[in-house]
C-alpha cells in the first residue's frame, strides 16, 4: 500500500483506531502518532506494533509515539498536533477515529441534554478540533508523491469517521446519528476549502464492526446482533482490519483523485 510518511491516529488505543495503527505500520508509514484518552491501552498498542515489526525483522521500523489527550479539549488538541509535527517533521495523514456511542431508551423525546452534548462534543467538535489543527500544518508543507506510481500525491490526507448512521437513521440513536451526519457535512465543506491545494479530506462510514464500542454495552450489542441478522446483506459484522483497509485506501496515493467523499464499508447495509 501507499502510505509513506507520518500518520496521526486518534482513538488508537482500541478497536478500529488500533487496527488502523497496525495497518499503517505494516504498510510503510515511517512515523505513527497515536492519540487516545486511555494511556495504558495506548502503551499496549505501541508495544504490540513494535513487537510485530521486530518479529518481521524490519530493519527500519516505524517510529511510534503516544499522546494522551481528550479530542474535545481544544487547547490540548492544538498542543498535541503541534508537538506531533515538531517531533516527526511533518504530518501526512490524520485518521480521526476517536468516538463514542450511546442509545437513548425511549428515543429522541427522552435524550438527555447532557448525553446529547457529550456525544456531539466528542464525535463532531473533537473531530473538528483535530482536523483544524492538522490542516493548518498540512497546508504549509510540501506535497509528497505516491510511492507506487509517482503521481502527485498530496500535502495531506484526513479521514474522518462517520458511520452508516451518517447517511441513515437508526432508532434510539438521536445524538450519535446527528453527530455522524454532521461529520459528513464537515468533511464535504472542509474538502472543498482545500481540494485545489492538495489537501484531501474524506469520510469513512463503517457498518456494524466488532469492537469494544459495539460489544461492551449490552443494549448496543443486543440491538446490533438483531440488526446484523436481518439488515446486513453480508449477514455478518465487519472486522476492524476491514475498516482499516478502507482508511488506507483513502489515506494514500491510490485515492489521489478522491476528496469530499464518504466511503461505505458496511457489508451492503446502506445499499438496501
Ligand atoms: N464499531 C462500529 O460498529 C462502528 C460503526 C460505525 C462507526 N464507528 C466509528 O468508528 C470509530 C472507532 O470506533 P470503535 O468501534 O473502534 O470504538 P472503540 O470504543 O473500540 O474505540 C474508540 C477509542 O476512542 C477513544 N476515545 C473516545 N473518546 C475519546 C476522546 N474524547 N478523546 C480521545 N480518545 C477518545 C477511546 O478511548 C477508544 O480507545 C468511532 O468514531 C465510531 O463512532 C464504529
From TrEMBL:
Record keyword Ligase present: no
A GO term, aspect molecular function: oxidoreductase activity, acting on the CH-OH group of donors, NAD or NADP as acceptor
Domain of life: Eukaryota
Claim: NADP is one of the keywords in the record: yes
Database matches in Pfam families: adh_short_C2
Keyword field: NADP
Family: Belongs to the short-chain dehydrogenases/reductases (SDR) family.
The protein's name: Uncharacterized protein
Species whose genome carries this gene: Penicillium angulare
Amino acid at each position: 500500500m501507499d502510505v509513506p510518511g507520518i500518520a496521526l491516529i486518534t482513538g488508537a488505543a482500541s478497536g478500529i483506531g488500533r487496527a488502523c495503527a497496525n495497518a499503517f505500520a505494516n504498510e510503510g508509514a515511517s512515523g505513527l502518532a497515536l492519540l487516545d484518552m486511555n494511556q495504558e491501552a495506548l502503551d499496549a498498542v505501541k508495544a504490540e506494533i513494535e513487537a510485530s515489526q521486530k518479529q518481521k525483522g524490519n530493519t527500519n521500523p516505524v517510529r511510534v509515539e503516544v499522546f494522551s489527550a481528550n479530542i474535545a479539549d481544544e487547547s490540548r488538541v492544538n498542543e498535541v498536533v503541534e508537538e506531533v509535527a515538531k517531533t516527526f517533521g511533518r504530518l501526512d495523514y490524520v485518521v480521526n477515529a476517536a468516538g463514542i456511542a450511546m442509545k437513548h431508551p425511549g428515543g429522541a423525546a427522552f435524550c438527555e441534554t447532557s448525553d446529547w452534548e457529550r456525544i456531539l462534543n466528542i464525535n463532531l467538535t473533537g473531530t473538528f478540533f483535530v482536523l483544524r489543527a492538522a490542516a493548518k500544518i498540512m497546508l504549509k508543507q510540501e506535497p509528497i508523491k505516491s510511492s507506487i506510481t509517482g503521481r502527485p500525491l498530496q500535502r495531506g490526507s484526513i479521514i474522518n469517521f462517520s458511520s452508516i448512521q451518517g447517511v441513515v437513521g437508526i432508532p434510539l440513536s438521536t445524538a450519535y446519528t446527528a453527530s455522524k451526519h454532521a461529520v459528513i457535512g464537515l468533511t464535504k465543506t472542509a474538502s472543498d476549502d482545500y481540494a485545489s491545494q492538495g489537501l484531501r479530506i474524506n469520510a469513512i462510514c463503517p457498518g456494524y464492526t466488532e469492537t469494544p464500542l459495539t460489544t461492551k454495552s449490552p443494549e448496543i450489542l443486543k440491538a446490533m446482533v438483531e440488526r446484523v441478522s436481518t439488515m446486513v446483506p453480508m449477514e455478518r459484522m465487519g472486522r476492524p482490519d476491514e475498516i482499516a483497509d478502507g482508511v488506507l485506501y483513502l489515506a494514500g496515493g491510490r485515492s489521489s483523485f478522491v476528496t469530499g467523499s464518504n466511503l461505505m464499508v458496511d457489508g451492503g447495509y446502506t445499499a438496501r
